[in-house]
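User: I'll paste a sequence; please echo it back and then give the predicted structure.

Assistant: Echoing your sequence first, then the prediction.
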Amino acid sequence: MIDYLSLLSPRQRVVLALTLHGITSKQAAKMMHGNARTIEAQRQKAYNRLGVSGRDAALALLQSQSIEIERIALPIILYYHSRCALEIRERMVVLTRQPSEELS
């Protein structure tokens, strides 16, 4: 079995995880203190290394390998980007929350 995550740089893992959570290039750039074009380039390099053509294909590939999307990059984000980690973590929690949890 191929270890797909080992094909990606730490930065590409972060960008891919944010992308899979629906965060736009512009939002990711703000969180990572970069620019949107750099984020888009890193996303495309990650897709190329995984051999996929886009977000949906990347998500399907990682899910088929039982890779939990939340665990791809959060430790890296926390280590390298502590100032924005809380904002990213809050966004991930909102995206993974089930509708029934929001009502309680």
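The radius of gyration is 14 Å. The chain has a mean pLDDT of 77.
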